[in-house]
Amino acid sequence: xxxxxxxxxxxxxxxxxxxxxxxxxxxxxxxxxxxxxxxxxxxxxxxxxxxxxxxxxxxxxxxxxxxxxxxxxxxxxxxxxxxxxxxxxxxxxxxxxxxxxxxxxxxxxxxxxxxxxxxxxxxxxxxxxxxxxxxxxxxxxxxxxxxxxxxxxxxxxxxxxxxxxxxxxxxxxxxxxxxxxxxxxxxxxxxxxxxxxxxxxxxxxxxxxxxxxxxxxxxxxxxxxxxxxxxxxxxxxxxxxxxxxxxxxxxxxxxxxxx
Length: 259
Prior knowledge:
This protein is mostly helical. 81% of the residues lie in helices and 0% in strands. It has helices spanning 2-84, 88-96, 104-114, 119-126, 130-135, 140-159, 166-179, 192-204, 208-216, 221-258. The mean pLDDT is 79. The chain starts with a helix and ends with a helix. The longest helix is centred in the N-terminal third of the chain and has 83 residues, at 2-84.
């Protein structure tokens, strides 16, 4: 009948529409899933890029920090070298006035602190005698002046007759030292005069270590008289050696960071 025919057409239309709707829904769901998968992949890619970027920034930040620390230590070492190049009289005056922030000890403590437990730096600083850490050491110029005074006294002792009574020997030695010429230059010989002449020769050329060896090679009472000067000269040698080691350590730090 017509009614049945219309009903069948209606049912067929509904079925077709439902089928098309299901297909369209399925297609939309598939597109959504595909888009979701693509988005998740992009998100993961971005996440990996962020991690890589963060790693680079961390490494760069560490390098920058290490570089700044290295430069800070180098500056502290140069500052230490500068204060240890000052006349010992000035350094002792600073110490006596209680001006600890500008003294040798404050500079040494700063280098030790910035080294952050570097055993080499700490051992170099601690190798200096307590008197040097407190008051520094005489400069080469000061040692040259002191040597001239010590040399005069040592010559008097060397020229004094060994058999004469002490007081008379001192008088004779003083007279002989005043009327005799002082040897100069690099002259050969085992005597006190020759040793002092060679020591003066080396001192004039800034060769403190060689001068100390010559003075230590003397014998008799002249060597006893020279002992104070030798001790001061050895302090300066220790200071120079420590400064060379600290500066070498700074250079190694810089080169390590560059590599």
